[in-house]
Amino acid sequence: MTDVTDGVLHTLFHSDQGGHEQVVLCQDRASGLKAVIALHSTALGPALGGTRFYPYANEEAAVADALNLARGMSYKNAMAGLDHGGGKAVIIGDPERIKTEALLLAYGRFVASLGGRYVTACDVGTYVADMDVVARECRWTTGRSPGNGGAGDSSVLTAYGVFQGMRASAQHLWGDPTLRGRKVGVAGVGKVGHHLVEHLLADGAEVVVTDVRAEAVRRLTDLHPRVTVAADTDALIRVGGLDVYAPCALGGALDDDTVPALTATVVCGAANNQLAHPGVEKDLADRGILYAPDYVVNAGGVIQVADELHGFDFDRAKVKAARIFDTTLDIFTRAKKDGIPPAAAADRIAEHRIAEARSASR
Fold first, then answer.
1. Does the keyword Nucleotide-binding apply (predicted)?
2. Looking at the domain assignment, is residue 240 inside a domain?
């Protein structure tokens, strides 16, 4: 996997891809770019998903993450009612050390060479300013700045959508769509987590946060002194009286160690791929913990960038993101009716929409 010709896309097919249509490795030695682009499905339309910039241990880890994230984007876009399939790109390396204009331009050329099968956007480690650079080489770029015809920071509607999912969880469990008087723990207060905390505070929730970056916590507590801080995620999930746990950092937040220790009765957060492995959704249900499927509630960002392709209108995109409330409630209803966890119910609905689109295109 390391022997990649400079400046050439190499398409990889694996027996364990999980139905992915295409996986490509990209390398540009001049700029230092090494990236993976994974297209899970284009049945509903061009694959849409962000670009993650992260210092993976090796290329195998990067490919695995791209595959998981791309599949999640197919399901997310299907549940959001978008005419887009799922894709994801990851750039290998520490963005603080290797991110340059030349690297981003090289990446843009690789995305452009796919001819519109993949539309990129921001993710962990990439920002609006980066997408402006990528767009100079690739017209299939979203998440650009308003000055460059874009929608700006997609974390705004991502947080708004998670908040709607949380309100739906409150409605389903407690009969009232508000977090007023509830204690909510937010793990990760970066771009999305910060906005989410502000929604929660405005709604009257008591908020406890943690983040591996002291600066992110300090920035939040300077603005909102009534927010309390837990030492780390392990301490946060064990906070007494916690009603809702919101994982808003990297994936795999719900695992065999975390689930038994959770004090919250609802899990609803912005992180992708929160379930560390199959079966965790059942463990949550067995403990009586209501899980709002991550790719459903965090779809506000992709709704925002998808709207950009049609001439961005924030109010129009916000109306679409507000529907996450109804979608989440529908999933809880379907799960109860079928006697399955909400994650399984969401998967069934998404898979049905994708399968219908495949059948229609034959």
1. yes
2. yes
Instruction: Report the amino acid identity of residue 163.
Output: F
Where in the sequence is the domain holding 342, given as residue range(s)?
Answer: 155-302+308-352
Helix (H) or strand (E) segment spanning residue 193? helix 191-202
DSSP per-residue codes, 218-273: HHHHHH-TT-EE-SSHHHHHT-TT--EEEE-SSS--B-TTHHHH---SEE--S-SS
d(CA 108, CA 138) in angstroms, rounded, equals 5
Residues 234 and 294 placed together within one structural domain of the fold: yes
164-216 pLDDT, tens digit per residue, is 999 999 999 999 999 999 999 999 999 899 999 999 999 999 999 999 999 99
Calculate ∠ Cα 248-252-258, nearest 5°.
90
Residues 59-85 have pLDDT tens digits of 999 999 999 899 989 999 999 999 999
Evaluate if residue 357 carries a pLDDT over 80. yes
Select from 320, 327, 354, 321 the least CA-distant residue to 342.
327
8 A C-beta contact, residue 160 and residue 321: yes
CA distance 212 to 233: 9
213-216 long-range CB contacts below 8 Å, 24 or more apart? 216/189, 216/190
Residues forming the active site: 88
* Cα separation of the two ends of the chain: 34
Q: Which residue ranges make up the annotated binding site for NAD(+)? A: 188-193
Any domain includes 360: no
Residue 3's pLDDT is 36
pTM: 0.87
- Which residues are documented as binding site? 188-193
Same domain, 119 and 24: yes
Q: Final residue of a domain: which of 148, 173, 200? A: 148
Q: 172 in a domain, yes or no?
A: yes
pLDDT in the model for residue 4: 42
Q: Which residue has the tokens 């990528």?
A: 134
